[in-house]
Task: structure prediction
Amino acid sequence: MTNDDGVGATAPASAVTRPESETATPAPVLTGARTLYAVLAVAAFALLARLVGLGTRIMHWDEGRVGYWILRYHENGEFFYRPIIHGPFLPVVNDWVFTFIGVSDFSARLVVALVGGLFPLAAWLFREHLDDTEVVALALVLAANPLLVYYSRFMRNDVLVAAFSVFALGFVVRAVDTGKLRYLYFSTASMGLAFTTKANALLYLVCYLGAAALVFDHRLVGIAARGESVWSYLRSRPRWAKRGLRNRWKNAEYGAGVLVVNVVGALLVFLAVVAFFYAPRPELWQALAQPSGLPAVLDEATVGAAEEFYDSWGSGSHQDHPYLPYLYGLLETLVYGAGVTIVFAVVGLAADGYGSGTTGRRGRRWLVAFGLYWGVASVIGYPIATDIEAPWAAVHVVVPLAFPASVGIAYLYRETRASVVTRDTVSVGLAAIVIVAALAGVVGANAAYTNSTSQENEEVLQWAQPDNDLKSTMQDVERVAEANDGVDVLFYGSYHPTTDETLMYVENEESLERMPPGGPDWHGRLPLPWYLERADANVTSTPPSENGTALENPPPVVIAYGWEADHLREQLPGYTEHRHLFRLWSDEVVVFIDESELPEE
Result:
């Protein structure tokens, strides 16, 4: 089935009629249940790729920052929304995770890995608009793209907001395809979860609306190109919609009134999800015990959270940066981390838009065009929306490009099978080269990025990633803290030699028991507070001094920036010095440990 203008929903692959000239082409291998089994197998592979060695890499600066405040919430039960650490999803959910399986780098990243691993299942929701091979190909892109794999093994919200938003879109598509209103509830619940992860869920909605408007505009252009009246078409749409609803929802229970009630109910589900996550703790639990306080808590969870977000991000201060360097950084990340996806997206757009291929239809399908417009808007918009130049923003471009890329992968697969049947050795050879190169690129990139902290991968890794060698040193520090009485760790405060900013020093360590931290200098310690907090280490610090601070009775562990090493070495005889890259593109950290205080293994 084809739209009049060539842009719109097409029939499933099983309903496609192929031209007689292509009857030699073998029938698709995957149909119906087999496609579902293939998607499930891809999801299982995706979970495996994300879970194996998940706790191997040392925590990134950003992981350590959010992780520390999750630990504080886990310990004292106090949490409220702070836009600078994004949505409340990870603090609320990881609090439960830590309760059941303990605190570790693995458990901190587990929820993101699980959602990222299940992300390929979203492909099944679009099966009415992609053929069987394309559905599996879409699942493969979501499972194996190196950027999606790497940032699914990272305690950040980008993969979460992408997955929840795409599931929300897929459930809406299923609601329209099947006429089953329950999908509306799934959609709003999923979109509600997206809004609890990161504020750029708003950008997903904007992209969805903009892409839908452009797809509809294509339809109008096609109508005008055939010499038909656009205005007549627009006037007929209300009648068409009413007739479609009547045909779709034939049972009496699916009347217009019931439809409105279900839409309102679905919106209430969205608000309930958002309110539950954004409600401050322990005020939420107190209000549930004394319902008179519930209105105030709900107001704080909705209106109050919106005001907090606007005060933090609405002023535009976080976006006060030059556009072109951020655009260049985004494109560079896409080339290195999603080059195969981009190539297949181009092939898919050409195959879907400029030829009937094996499907006998004409014109680009609405879902493929939708992915293209969504992806282009993301490329243009994210360099404006992001507050720092970070590779994880590329996740939000890869996801929409996965839709045309799936068409490109399926096209190559079909052409290769047809060439094998007709014994076209030249075509088979060329296809084999393309397939091997693509597989080598994806597998090689994933192997390089999985637990990488290498400067060689700076296009994909964000610069505030410490080197992995630091992790073994911090394990020794944790062992010392667990066995030692009194002060365990001293952070040696200093001035940065180029920026002159104060680092490591916090005047009142007790201020770190609740958000926000007691001064910006604390951020210079990250991600080390995550490891020290989970070991319940007793921590103090020295104020910076231009001539260096003299130490008296130092604790068994002293941590400083690399430029202070010479001065400290003289004051810490008998201590073992461990030097590590702290931020891979700039600083080093030095950890002095009195190994006589280390308990035996």
In short: Confidence is low (pLDDT under 50) at residues 1-29, 356-360. Residues 469-597 form one domain. The beta strands are 489-492, 494-495, 502-503, 539-542, 557-561, 576-581, 588-593. The radius of gyration is 27 Å.
